Amino acid sequence: MLRSLAALAIVLIGVPGLAQDAFPGAEFEHVPLMYQGPDPTANYFLPTPNGYESQFARLPSPSEVLPEMLPPANGGNAVSPQPQFWTEGPPGIIGHVSDHKDGFFQKAALTGTYIDRGSLNSFGVNELDLSLTVAVPAPKREWPLLITPTFNVRFLDGPVTPMLPARLYEAYVDFLWLPRFNERWTAIIGVAPSLYTDFDVNTNDAFRLTGKALARYDWVPEQLQLVFGVLYLNRNDIRLLPAGGIIWNPTVNQRYEMIFPRPKFSYRIDATPGYEDWLYLAGEFGGNSFAYDRSGVADFVTLLDYRVMLGLERKLNGGAGYRIEVGYVFSRTAKFASALPDITADNTALIRGGVIY
Known about the structure:
The chain is mainly beta. The protein has helices at residues 2-14, 18-22, 203-206, and strands at residues 86-88, 94-97, 105-115, 124-137, 144-157, 167-177, 185-197, 207-220, 224-232, 240-248, 254-260, 264-271, 275-286, 289-294, 297-316, 321-336, 343-344, 348-356. It has a single domain (2-59, 89-356), classed as monomeric porin ompg (Porin, Beta Barrel).
């Protein structure tokens, strides 16, 4: 499976234009997804805080007739517009870079996370996440279906007793459908067949189906959106989790995603026509439930922790960019489905870096 995902990523990323040529006509005017790399918690994505028809976020439709394309009054030739990779905000303020690509290929992301072990009686985690996102019309390009194959590995460090598996894997394909019913209402519907495993246990034990069903209401376009719904985590400790809150953009330089279970408060500290720098404070809960082989017997371990992170992100045109985060991880536990005693780990530090193409 890992070889197949890697080969797919190499083909789509390494050959310029191949993805677009393989799906002619798949040019998406509005891809309402602010993809920020794989979420180690629940495979959970939020829509972009700017509306689908946002003057800051969208690229012009190929069918749009822009003023520059109209014949001049003197009968001369029409002037073709230049490609619009960023948009102007209010006078004297630079607008946002584009947060998506207009085509089949959307994003490829690589993220690495280091969680310190702490004491000898605790355990540390090194996380490596690789994902790829493509988009197809379903049934039209304004209602895209985003497909994200993902492969994650967790390297566990300690403790000696009870024994934790050395490596745990997540492999899934997330199907996220984003139908927009009218100017105000949009659905966010996703399902992800998944394997959470050490790849030594039986596949039937490792397989889980996760999903999400949310709605977004654009209360004040460009400024205020409401999000509400449920996440189907299907974990041993949590099956269903309510999700929702408010996304508020008071100015072009501020974005507050007051969303449970993944709040994020961002402030833009620098901007040019080619990039934006954002400083943010974010929270999430990490971990998952994994099936693994314990001396020839199938067992389940559920990792759980809570994270508060301070990050710096550079956003580039087309949704690309990179980021670095430092954080504090607390309330860390490892719980077993068998009679093994639970592990309570030390509060510790986190460092995370990610690149999105």
